[in-house]
Amino acid sequence: MIRRLCLLSLAWAPYAGATDFSPWIGNSLELQGEVGYLYQRFREVDSGDGDFEKKSNGNLLFAGLKVAYQDISGEIELFLAKTSEMSFGFSHARETFRYQPYDELNCDPVSLVFGLSLAESLSHSLKDFTFIHHGHFEAYAFGSIGKELTTSFKRWCSRVYGTVGVGVADIGSPWIDSSCFYEKRWVEGHRAGAGASFGMGFGRENLCLHHFDGYGPVRYREANLKAYYVYDIDRCHALKVLADVRVYADNCPRAASISIAYLASFGL
């Protein structure tokens, strides 16, 4: 029975980055762990004062653990970073809480989640423009809605979902984020998907690397295209690979990244 639960839970595992913003929260009283590595590279930075060449390599190690109970879930993540601007060390932490009022497994027409994600960043991470941090303390409220398009033998074969949220930090102005994804699943344990995301900060300043204290005060815009692949090793373990390309950048780097992660699920 536990092995069967693990299989179902990994079907809802996060697949678009470390934090899970999807409208599916997994099985009740089951731990899901994830460890991974992300590499980001860019050669150009766009600012309101004009584009300029800036080479940088960013490395991010992350580990997360989440658990669901009925229609709520909680997740905690830790991040270590090394970039061209910062030596290797602790970068930031994140805690995410989700509530699911509608679930297709309960015969609702869609799956719907509302959530709150909190983040805490150290000063040296905040002053590094490689990854987007808005302040020392951040709060991000979001909603996510999804729909299974086709099902077979009580398992989904394809689905879509979208997320929109607004965030505030102790520094600067609010920001908004949105994303949408389509995912396809095959019986052999292979999953793949693609999507796009858009982020916008309502700050009033242009990006200035000489006096940079996070993206909170910056008026930035960024649009990304993403593609991912997930392979279910067995009923309780999976590997995922995600590629992310920033196709539009205003007051932020024109970055591209790739990440790989290992996921495991344990029944309590």
UniProtKB/TrEMBL annotation:
Sorted UniProt keywords: Signal
The protein's name in its UniProt record: Putative secreted protein
Signal sequence residues: 1-18
Organism: Estrella lausannensis
